[in-house]
Design a protein that fits this description.
The protein has about 240 residues and is an alpha+beta fold. The protein contains 6 helices and 17 strands. The strands form 4 sheets. Strands 7, 8, 9, 10, 13, 14, 15, 16 and 17 form a 9-stranded mixed beta sheet that branches. A 4-stranded antiparallel beta sheet has the order 3-2-5-6, with no helix packed on it. A two-stranded antiparallel ribbon has the order 1-4. The longest helix has 9 residues, at about 15-25. It starts with a strand and ends in a 6-residue tail after the last helix. The relative contact order is 0.14. The protein binds uracil. The site of uracil (URA) has 8 residues, from helix 5.
């Protein structure tokens, strides 16, 4: 489908529609190697090669952001030869090249996984420097004590690592053990399991229930995935203080 050159230029983000017109009339734009100064010129965005300052221009595809409710038994990767991945759960109509999970949950952990093709956004929400909290509910095979809550708040030594301050709050007791809410601002390998392991406790169930200020949609069944709205995306990237 052909479109007007100035409209194509504006869509690439190099200038506004008005600014693009000026670039054309100033003779700064080439189409298939030839300078074009005519404002009515039409181009085919797929076939024609449009360049500015020797650089080829293309319209970036809009990035996508999905919330997945991860079931157990699925690995947090884009591809795996032997096991189903979280990206395999993305339905055909939402699938596109370059999708990956922004952050990993263990194979037996369930809940909120954000799947995107936006590397910059993923880096931002995962970086410990950004302090985006990730909230989990964990069932452990024993008691969650006030001492543990106080230790988590200071940070816990797990092997070689010392965690950032985290939050632990006991939620309820069951015959199997206690449920607790854990809030982390980083994602060290098996972090929650290792933090409870310091106290001799085993994590029996682990579910991520929130990223930033966005809770997992309670209407979203396990194994299903849906697009996030712009407002929801903003909530993922926001911290408690804001
Ligand atoms: N901590 C863990 O131990 N496992 C996860 O999947 C997430 C956090």
């Amino acid at each position: 489908m052909q479109e007007r050159l100035q409209k194509f230029l504006a869509r690439t983000g190099i200038a506004s529609r008005r600014g693009a017109e000026k670039l054309i009339t100033d003779g700064k734009i080439r189409v298939n190697g030839v300078v074009v100064t005519e404002l009515g010129t039409k181009v085919d965005p797929v076939k024609d090669k449009v360049s500015y300052n020797g650089k080829m221009l293309k319209v970036e595809a809009k990035k996508v952001y999905y919330m997945l409710n991860k079931p157990k038994g699925v690995v947090s990767a884009s591809e795996d030869k032997n096991q189903p991945t979280v990206v395999d759960l993305v339905p055909q109509n939402l699938w596109r090249k370059g999708l990956f999970p922004a952050g990993r949950l263990d194979k037996d952990t369930t809940g909120f996984v954000l799947i995107t093709d936006d590397g910059e956004f993923a880096h931002d929400i995962l970086s410990p420097k950004k302090h985006i909290p990730k909230t989990y509910h964990a069932l452990v095979d024993g008691a969650i004590t006030e001492r543990m809550e106080a230790d988590f708040a200071k940070g816990v030594r797990i092997g070689e690592d010392f965690t950032l301050p985290a939050s632990l709050k006991k939620l309820s007791s069951t015959p199997q053990g206690d449920w607790g809410e854990v809030i982390l601002k980083e994602g060290l390998y098996h972090q929650i399991k290792r933090m409870f392991g310091v106290y001799g406790l085993k994590v029996l169930e682990l579910k991520r229930v929130q990223m930033g200020k966005l809770p997992l949609d309670p209407q979203l069944p396990e194994g299903k995935c849906r697009e996030l709205s712009e407002e929801e995306l903003r909530l993922v990237a926001s911290r408690e203080e804001e």
